[in-house]
Amino acid sequence: MLGAFHKSSVLKKLIVRELVGLSFISPWLLGFLVFIIGPMIASLYLSFTNYDMLSSPEWVGTKNYIHMFTQDPRYWTSLKITFLFVLIAVPLKLAFALFIAMLFNANRRGVGIYRTVYYIPSIIGGSVAVSVMWKQLFGLHGALNSGLALLGIAGQDWVTNPNTALWTLITMVVWQFGSPMLIFMAGLKQIPLELYEAAAVDGARPLSNFFRITLPMLTPVIFFNLVMQMIGGFMSFTQSFLVTGGGPLDRTLFYAVYLYQKAFTNFQMGYASAMAWILLLIIAFLTALVFKSSSLWVYYESEGGK
Question: What does pTM read for this prediction?
Answer without folding.
Answer: 0.89
